[in-house]
């Protein structure tokens, strides 16, 4: 388990991470979602022991990670733009990491390279960005670490490869004690793979919840009220996160289960109503707007 | 799953074989280093061999190349090649040059990973403690150097051996030089490490490295120049040697200028001596390496890795560097302005300090932020730094600390040395390297510091006013500058200069000091330690060591080793006759020179020699030379002389009298035969003679004379040395 408590990190005058507390449980795929500059990469770099926190603690299976090789040996970090040696080939990287991680599975790595049609002895500099990401994903999988931190790794992978990567992660989780942590600002990338997501905004976690709970806990409601009194009464009963209207059609994003919502609607005089499931993207937008984030600035790919 | 590498060397908790080094997968570092050393050693050795062969050929073709040397003497091919090769790869040669290139290549390659976020992520996420990574970079970088330079040198040696040009001493010298270069590499590597750990990008780290390597020397030189300019009694006689200069380059320069070198052509013992003479360089640089690496690791350990790409990674260091640059740069510009342009001591210098201090501060901030719009950041630091520079400058200029006014009390001083700069004799240390003035005096002359000596200095201070210095002769007698080296009981030393009036009471007090046995024996280099060193010439150069007696016109020599002991015994006894009055008024009759080669021969190797003036009053010495038939043969000299012309030097009119009669010539030679000042240092003489009339003597030898074939010898001597009849003739000729 990765436990992050009251974490703070400043880059000169800018607060990259501010008072962040988060727990990443074992055996689940954790998705770290945030806007550009929210602090996802900084958080991952601190979790992997690269950066020293200004304040707070990061504990991996109970041990601090910074300057602790034993804890770091449990974490493999694949950054957004991973470094490789000039002229390096996938097999040379394999031999390098083989010397670093005692559990490194060289044979499996070789098999996976072949399975994904990645040239074993090709120069990484000649690979496409997506191919390089695949190589590092495989290195991360085969390093044998308990935690694999993938920073924007799924960005740039083609749909087929993304699906293959997801399968590989799933397979690894079934075979051993393995917890991948994925970060992305592309919500669609994570929606169908993560068990748990954490929304990061301005260096803090806005919410961290199981994806299934989150989807059931937020609803989109489209409704045409018969009169204003009904609208006022309903809005008083609901925890409205986002509200918009087109003519008489009111659209709400509200917190609560479907059952709770249906109970509230039953007491109101409405012309038309419909409860719709939210996509992860809509959940994200809603939560961000609640904390005052300018939705127009969110970059979706 | 594969097994772990069997050759991994565990450092700490993680496998630490070279395969996981920062240098791993960077073959260019090793290949380039090796290439440099292959170019330096085997290739230059081949060229040296070729040059030696050309020279050997020239010996064979020209057997009269040197009447004293034959090809056999030279030693043939091996010695020739040894000479050439040791000049390339031996001790105190340019073999440090490739180190300068390779160390920066290796050093920056090792630590440059900290300058980019993606390399930081790559290395810092690995399960390894920073201390182990730091040590591995040093270990692996050093191994690369050792391998590259070792392979290069070994190839060169094998090549020369195969071509028949290697001697045992050359093997020894080349590998001792290898050790010296490795120590230099370590020290420079440590400085590169420190610069990298403090900087955030490659360009800044290179600039910072140059700064760190040079700043201590810059400060010392600037301080020395400013003290020399502003403080009347400050003496820079000890130069930079008294300062601890935190730079391997400065240490290197110091080693190279610190003494002569004996190369492999003279055998193993001399090679070892030369290496031992550079011992100080080795330990100084090793200490510097340890210190710099200690600081570098501290900076590395606490480094915020997110600062990759920034100029500097610590804000406190940004401030420190800015303050140092503003103070040093501003001070230097103010000093330069006053010394070169102004010279009046006006406010121009202060304005220059403020203007340049401000410019330097702005440049520093712009560089730190990589943004010229940030040039006025930290205005308080800028203002305070500029003010500090102004205050330090004014403080030194007006001697706020009272340096010039302070004379150490007798109770605080262990001993003193007194000397002056008109004297420039050389002495020999235990390695037979020359110790030049003033190092000799500051090291070996230990005179008691008495109340009389302090009184002399105190009185000298009153003569030291700028007005007196500008008009020294206006009622002040005869002012001369002497240097006093104080050895304090606390262990500190300082050298000061004071004025002495040779004709006044300070001169009398100086005369008393000069007459002490300690002064004479140290001044003339005849203490037991000095004599022991000089006698090593006989053990080191048994075939060529000799003692010679020289005047301006004659030279006699003896290779009798026993004569040296007799000479020193007689000389020490004769020194009782020496006093300031004698030194001021007389020229020595001759000089005794003890050397490893006759001065008349062209020595092709290091010439080691020491000289001792012998006055006409030194009866014991003269008797000794008489006994050994070394006294100049005046009859033969007179016979060989065609004429002697004596002339007075007068701006308005020159007078000259010429003598050709053998009787007159002999009489003149008896009086004027002497050793001129160019042979030895006799400063007090120079002072004494300043107001005395001097004459020139011009001796022309007959054609075919053995004393000096048709040559003309000229000399300048005091008039009182002339025979009575010559002085009368000169008066008549006016």
Describe it.
- The complex is a heterodimer of chains A (301) and B (734).
- With 301 residues, chain A is α/β, with parallel strands linked by helices.
- Chain A folds into two domains: 2-202, P-loop containing nucleotide triphosphate hydrolases (Rossmann fold), CATH 3.40.50; 214-297, Alpha-Beta Plaits (2-Layer Sandwich), CATH 3.30.70.1150.
- In chain A, 35% of the residues lie in helices and 31% in strands.
- In chain A, the strands form three sheets. In chain A, strands 6-7-8-3-9-10 form a six-stranded mixed sheet, sandwiched between helices.
- In chain A, a hairpin with a 2-residue loop joins strand 4 and strand 5.
- In chain A, helix 3 packs antiparallel against helix 4 (106-115) and helix 4 (106-115) runs antiparallel to helix 5 (129-142).
- The longest helix of chain A is centred in the middle third of the chain and has 17 residues, at 159-175.
- Chain A is elongated and about 70 Å long.
- Chain B has five domains: 17-201 and 246-304; 315-397, no CATH class; 410-523, no CATH class; 528-627, no CATH class; 634-733, no CATH class.
- Chain B has a four-stranded antiparallel sheet, with helices on one face. In chain B, strands 13-12-14-15 form a four-stranded antiparallel sheet.
- In chain B, strand 8 and strand 9 (555-558) form a beta hairpin.
- Chain B is globular, with a radius of gyration of 32 Å.
- The relative contact order of chain B is 0.06.
- Chain A binds chain B through residues 11, 42, 45, 48-52, 67, 69-70, 72-73, 75-77, 79, 81-83, 85-88, 92, 95-96, 98-108, and chain B through 1-2, 4-5, 8, 12-15, 17, 19-20, 24-26, 116, 118-122, 124-130, 304-306.
């Amino acid at each position: 388990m990765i436990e992050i408590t009251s974490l703070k990190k400043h880059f000169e005058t800018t607060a990259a991470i501010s008072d962040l507390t988060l727990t990443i449980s074992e055996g689940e795929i954790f998705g770290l979602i945030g806007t550009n500059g929210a602090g996802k990469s900084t958080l991952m770099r601190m979790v992997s022991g690269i950066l020293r926190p200004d304040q707070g603690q990061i504990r991996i299976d109970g041990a601090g990670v910074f300057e602790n090789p034993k804890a770091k040996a449990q974490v493999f970090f694949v950054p957004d733009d991973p470094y490789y040696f000039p002229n390096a080939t996938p097999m040379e990287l394999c031999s390098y990491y083989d010397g670093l991680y005692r559990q490194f599975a060289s044979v499996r790595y070789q098999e996976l390279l072949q399975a994904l049609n990645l040239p074993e002895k090709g120069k990484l500099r000649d690979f496409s960005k997506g191919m390089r990401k695949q190589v590092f994903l495989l290195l991360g999988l085969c390093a044998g670490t308990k935690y694999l931190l993938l920073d924007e790794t799924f960005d740039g992978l083609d749909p087929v490869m993304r699906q293959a990567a997801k399968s590989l992660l799933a397979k690894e989780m079934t075979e051993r004690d393995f917890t991948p942590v994925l970060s992305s600002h592309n919500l669609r990338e994570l929606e169908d793979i993560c068990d748990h997501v954490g929304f990061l905004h301005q260096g803090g976690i806005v919410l961290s919840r199981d994806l299934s709970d989150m989807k059931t806990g937020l609803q989109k409601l489209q409704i045409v009220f018969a009169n204003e009194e009904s609208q006022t009464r309903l809005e008083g009963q609901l925890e409205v996160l986002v509200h918009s209207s087109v003519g008489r059609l009111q659209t709400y994003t509200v917190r609560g289960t479907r059952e709770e919502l249906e109970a509230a609607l039953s007491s109101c005089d409405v012309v038309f109503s419909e409860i719709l499931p939210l996509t992860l993207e809509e959940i994200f937008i809603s939560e961000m707007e609640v904390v005052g984030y300018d939705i127009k600035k969110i970059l979706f790919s | 799953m594969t097994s772990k590498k069997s050759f991994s060397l565990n450092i700490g908790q993680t496998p630490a074989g070279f395969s996981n080094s920062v240098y791993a997968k960077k073959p260019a570092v090793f290949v380039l280093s090796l290439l440099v050393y292959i170019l330096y050693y085997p290739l230059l050795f081949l060229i040296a061999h070729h040059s030696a062969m050309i020279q050997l050929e020239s010996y064979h073709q020209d057997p009269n190349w040197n009447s004293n040397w034959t090809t056999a003497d030279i030693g043939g091919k091996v010695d020739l090649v040894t000479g050439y090769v040791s000049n390339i790869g031996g001790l105190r040669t340019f073999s440090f040059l490739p180190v300068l290139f390779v160390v920066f290549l290796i050093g920056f390659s090792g630590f440059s990973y900290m300058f980019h976020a993606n390399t930081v992520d790559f290395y810092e996420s690995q399960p390894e403690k920073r201390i182990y990574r730091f040590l591995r970079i040093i270990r692996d970088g050093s191994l690369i150097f050792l391998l590259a330079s070792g392979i290069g040198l070994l190839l060169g040696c094998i090549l020369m051996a195969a071509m028949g040009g290697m001697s045992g001493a050359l093997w020894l010298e080349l590998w001792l030089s290898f050790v010296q270069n490795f120590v230099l590499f370590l020290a420079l590597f440590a400085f590169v490490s420190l610069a990298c750990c403090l900087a955030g990008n490659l360009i800044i780290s290179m600039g910072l490295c140059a700064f760190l390597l040079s700043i201590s020397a810059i400060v010392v030189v600037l301080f020395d120049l400013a003290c020399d300019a502003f403080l009347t009694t400050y003496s820079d006689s000890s130069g930079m040697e008294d300062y601890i200069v935190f730079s391997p380059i400065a240490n290197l320069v110091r080693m190279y200028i610190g003494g002569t070198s004996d190369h492999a052509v003279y055998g193993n013992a001399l090679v070892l001596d030369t290496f031992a003479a550079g011992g100080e360089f080795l330990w100084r640089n090793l200490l510097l390496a340890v210190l710099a690496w200690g600081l570098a690791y501290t900076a590395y350990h606490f480094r915020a890795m997110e600062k990759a790409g920034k100029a500097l990674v610590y804000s406190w260091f940004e401030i420190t560097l800015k303050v140092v640059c503003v103070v040093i740069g501003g001070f230097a510009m103010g000093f330069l302005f006053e010394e070169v342009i102004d010279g009046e001591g006006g406010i121009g210098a202060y304005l220059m300090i403020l203007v340049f201090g401000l410019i330097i501060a702005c440049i520093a901030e712009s560089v730190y932020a990589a943004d010229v719009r940030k040039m006025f950041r930290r205005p308080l630091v800028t203002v305070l730094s500029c003010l500090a520079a102004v205050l330090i400058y004014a403080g030194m200029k007006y001697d706020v600390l009272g340096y010039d006014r302070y004379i150490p009390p007798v109770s605080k001083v262990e001993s003193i040395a007194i000397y002056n700069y008109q004297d420039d004799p050389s002495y020999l240390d235990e390695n037979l390297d020359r110790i030049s003035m003033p190092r000799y005096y500051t090291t070996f002359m230990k005179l008691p510091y008495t109340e009389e000596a302090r009184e002399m200095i105190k009185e000298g201070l009153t003569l030291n006013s700028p007005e007196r210095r500008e008009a020294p002769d206006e009622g002040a007698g005869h002012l001369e500058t002497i240097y006093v080296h104080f050895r304090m009981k606390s262990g500190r030393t300082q050298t000061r200069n004071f004025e002495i009036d040779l004709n006044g009471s300070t001169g009398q007090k100086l005369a008393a000091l000069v007459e002490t046995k300690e002064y004479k024996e140290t001044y003339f280099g005849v203490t037991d330690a000095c004599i022991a060193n000089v006698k090593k010439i006989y053990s080191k150069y048994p075939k060529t060591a000799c003692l010679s007696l020289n005047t301006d016109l004659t030279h006699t020599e003896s290779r009798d080793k026993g004569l040296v002991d007799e000479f020193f015994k007689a000389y020490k006894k004769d020194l009782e006759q020496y006093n300031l009055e004698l030194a001021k008024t007389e020229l020595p009759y001759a000089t005794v020179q003890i050397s490893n080669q006759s001065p008349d021969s062209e020595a092709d190797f290091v010439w080691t020699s020491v000289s001792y003036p012998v006055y006409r009053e030194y009866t014991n010495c003269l008797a000794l030379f008489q006994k050994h038939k070394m006294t100049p043969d005046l009859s033969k000299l007179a016979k060989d002389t065609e004429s002697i012309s004596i002339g007075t030097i007068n701006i308005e009119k020159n007078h000259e009298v010429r003598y050709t009669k053998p009787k007159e010539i002999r009489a003149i030679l008896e009086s004027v035969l002497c050793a001129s000042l160019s042979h030895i240092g006799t400063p007090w003489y120079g002072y004494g003679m300043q107001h005395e009339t001097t004459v020139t003597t011009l001796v022309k030898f007959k054609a075919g004379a053995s004393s000096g074939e048709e040559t003309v010898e000229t000399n300048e001597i005091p008039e009182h040395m002339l025979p009575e009849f010559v002085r009368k003739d000169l008066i008549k000729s006016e």
